[in-house]
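Extended Data, record Peptidyl-prolyl cis-trans isomerase
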Amino acid sequence: MAERIVIRLTDGREIRLALCPEYAPETVAHFVELVKRGYYTGLCFHRVINGFMIQGGGFRVDGNTVSDAPEARAIRGEFASNGCKTNTLKHEAGVISMARTQDKNSATGQFFIMTDAAPHLDGDYAAFGKVEDPESLAVVRAIGKGATYRTARVRGMPYEYAQNPYRGNARMEQYYMSQLFSDFPYPDPVVIAEIVIAAD
């Protein structure tokens, strides 16, 4: 039976997800351990790209990272391009996946939830669960239209492009994605009050 979690936000909203160990058992076990340790409490969604995903699990509202916390150790990337052929979960709207660097075995505590489908991520990132209901997806998409996207800036690119990255030019979109960063503090951050294991 899938492990179910609830991401409770400080503004009272909730995102309910079902984790899928049949696709990524080590990733699910790692994430659940972080949840049980209270690792995510007080962290914010620090990277938000409308029409793509929301990312959290690495920063407090003041911009200080928690990625060096001892419990956030790096884990093996459970996805096809890293030898894990059983993870066929696609990056569709509502799917939760682990963030990483160029190193395929570098995922620690950061995760992202898709607001829309992104098939180019399939097989290269460890998807490990999905939202349980339309209400939760609506919360994810509402966050996706929020604060960090408004304050995103791109090195070497005009600010107005950062506000409208999806203009049909795949090469520039990829460059935008690789260069994106957010300033801290930013207005109206979406903060995680806690992530809990859902009661049956």
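Summary. Strands lie at 4-9, 14-19, 43-49, 53-60, 95-98, 111-114, 127-131, 152-154, 180-182, 192-197.
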